[in-house]
Amino acid sequence: MKNIEILKQNDFHDSLLEKISYDEKNQRVTLEIDFCNWRQSWYHEKEPETKIIVLVFELVSDIVIPEFCLDSDGIIEFNFLQNEESTTGVEIVVFNEAENAEHSIVIYANEVNVIWDTRDV
Fold it and tell me: Which whole-number Å values give the CA distances from 70 to 41, 53, 85, 96, 115, in the listed order?
């Protein structure tokens, strides 16, 4: 997956998954995340502790999004995967407090981009 290193350089634990959008026609998945700046090695006290970022997965070849009511679910795991075709993917495990349950979202794509300044969305 192109740009996967950007994801590997950040800690997503405790960030909140706010929104998932899947555009099947354009093979695009967009995740809106309330990202924990304070958990990052590069964090400085003058920055906000959290900020909204957007992950955009392009040319999605496989996706698993379980049926559940997304409600600012906390990210408890962010894993990197590889399938039989050597396509790189991510598994994002979230905890849904309303259901008291974990849900696993899996995305295989050719590219991921991070929008750090959501005013650009």
Answer: 28, 17, 30, 7, 21
- SS3 assignment, position 8: helix
Per-residue confidence (pLDDT) for residue 121, from 0 to 100: 47
pLDDT digits (tens, 9 = 90+) for 99-108: 999 999 999 9
pLDDT digits (tens, 9 = 90+) for 61-83: 999 998 888 888 999 999 999 88
Whether the Cβ atoms of residue 91 and residue 65 lie closer than 8 Å to each other: no
Identify which of 76, 21, 74, 79 has the alpha carbon closest to the alpha carbon of residue 50. Answer: 74
CA distance from start to end of the chain: 22
